[in-house]
Amino acid sequence: MLIDCNTCAVRGLACHDCVIGVFLDTPIPPLDLDLDEREAIDSLVAAGLVPPFRLVALPSPESAERGIA
Asked: Is the whole-model pTM more than 0.85?
């Protein structure tokens, strides 16, 4: 999973309630989480210990040209 805060549509608005903002200062450079890291974060989220990801990816210019959201 690639997390890039620079492409998040709610950057700034939802950073305070995003798991990335809990663990790291935001914005961050792109971060690539492997399966084990993602499962560990999902376990913390499921236990109510941290908020979930709030990343809302902006559509890329290429997808916008093709009409894909």
From this structure: no
